[in-house]
């Protein structure tokens, strides 16, 4: 079996086999428990407090997902683009912002059609027909696996993916979701960004376990073992068994759910600390509740954005920003003709490595 040649013998989803062992069942139970604990924790919080953080964590997830596909971008550059009035002409940033907008429209869908998972129309609006794709080693850049290239085989595999993606919500187990994620990467149905689509499927598919959409940092976790993430594609096809892949996939989700829960806890503590600083250590009375929402909308803000969110005059916004800088909550940063204000503690939380 030469995986440097197109693997046109790739099977259909229902043909994949796995043996249910005690180890696998234990991992699936642990993953399910971690997911429900994370989602239950989030449900206890007011949506106006949690949602800004979720939107930023979604940006972090997309950034890391694009990086896994060889499209890196600095965190600071990405968040600056969010905060600036001027548009940054960077292809990766534009793709991430477009992906974010596209994914938001998917939330709450009962069926996830393959067409609806395309994240950026200009780049992947057409299915792959004969264009070669490869999954490479992150360390050696050698080819680990080459997806099918035969047009007839591709059409059959894509139709099979469609059928399974449209399965009703309550019918897909974690094992089935793991296999579909595997198959999206193995088939590589699009001309680009197949790994990004597969990871976005993983997030959206969790709704099929009757859980709300939360952008778990799965790409951040995968980056810690990204070589294994790619090598398991080849290994699973060689052995014709999916147990190792399903265990790996479930472990990724478990770690991501635990990371998200920890970050939510740190986020709440950071909000509390900022609120106390504004009320205790300033000789000027600020509208703390309103400003708190501005501080945690995104890491970089500007005066215009503060005016809009607080419905205040521009001079008032600059006065608030000046006091917040004196307090040490914000750091001014000149960006051309604009001045952005960085909430560094919030930025550091968003971009942190996995929290132990």
Helices and strands, with pairings:
Elements: H1 22-43, H2 47-68, H3 75-83, H4 91-104, H5 121-124, E1 135-136, E2 143-145, H6 151-165, H7 174-187, H8 194-205, H9 218-223, H10 226-239, H11 243-280, H12 288-295, E3 300-301, H13 303-310, H14 314-327, E4 331-335, E5 338-342, H15 344-351
Antiparallel strand pairs: 1-2, 3-5, 4-5
List the domain count as a whole number: 2
The largest beta-sheet arranges its strands as 3-5-4
Number of H- or I-type helical stretches: 15
Question: Total number of β-strand segments?
Answer: 5
Q: Which spans of ≥5 residues are poorly predicted at pLDDT below 50?
A: 119-125
Q: Could you tell me how far the N terminus lies from the C terminus, measured between alpha carbons in angstroms? A: 40 Å
Beta-strand percentage range:
under 5%
Specify Rg, calculated over alpha carbons.
Answer: 22 Å
Q: Classify the helix fraction into a percent range.
A: 55-70%
**Which word captures the global form?**
elongated
CATH class of the largest domain: Mainly Alpha
Topology order in helix (H) and strand (E) letters:
HHHHHEEHHHHHHHEHHEEH
Please state the average pLDDT score. Answer: 87
CATH architecture of the largest domain: Orthogonal Bundle
Largest sheet data: 3 strands, antiparallel
């Amino acid at each position: 079996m030469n995986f440097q040649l197109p693997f046109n013998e790739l099977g259909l989803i229902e043909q994949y086999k796995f043996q249910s062992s005690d180890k696998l069942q234990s991992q699936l139970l642990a993953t399910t428990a971690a997911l429900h604990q994370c989602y239950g924790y989030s449900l206890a919080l007011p949506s106006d407090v949690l949602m800004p953080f979720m939107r930023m964590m979604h940006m972090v997830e997309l950034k890391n997902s694009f990086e896994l596909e060889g499209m890196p971008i600095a965190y600071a550059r990405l968040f600056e683009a969010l905060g600036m009035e001027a548009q940054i002409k960077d292809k990766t940033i534009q793709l991430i912002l477009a992906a974010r907008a596209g994914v938001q429209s998917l939330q709450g869908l009962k069926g996830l059609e393959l067409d609806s998972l395309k994240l950026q129309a200009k780049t992947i609006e057409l299915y792959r027909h004969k264009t070669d794709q490869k999954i490479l080693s992150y360390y050696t850049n050698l080819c680990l696996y080459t997806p099918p290239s035969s047009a007839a085989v591709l059409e059959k595999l894509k139709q099979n993916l469609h059928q399974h993606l449209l399965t009703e919500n309550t019918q897909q187990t974690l094992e089935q979701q793991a296999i579909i994620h595997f198959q999206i990467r193995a088939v590589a149905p699009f001309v680009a960004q197949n790994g990004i689509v597969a990871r976005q499927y993983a997030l959206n598919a969790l709704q099929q376990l009757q859980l709300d959409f939360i952008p778990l940092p799965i790409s951040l976790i995968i980056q810690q073992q990204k070589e294994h993430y790619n090598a398991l594609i080849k290994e699973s096809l060689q052995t014709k068994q999916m147990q190792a892949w399903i265990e790996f996939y479930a472990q990724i989700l478990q770690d991501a759910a635990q990371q998200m829960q920890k970050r939510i806890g740190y986020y709440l503590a950071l909000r509390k600390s900022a609120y106390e600083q504004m009320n205790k250590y300033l000789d000027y009375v600020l509208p703390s509740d309103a400003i708190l929402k501005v501080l945690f909308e995104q890491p970089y803000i500007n005066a215009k954005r503060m005016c809009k969110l607080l419905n205040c005059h521009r001079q008032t916004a600059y006065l608030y920003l000046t006091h917040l800088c004196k307090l040490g909550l914000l750091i001014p940063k000149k960006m051309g003709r604009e001045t952005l204000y960085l909430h560094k503690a919030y930025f550091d939380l968003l971009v942190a490595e996995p929290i132990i």
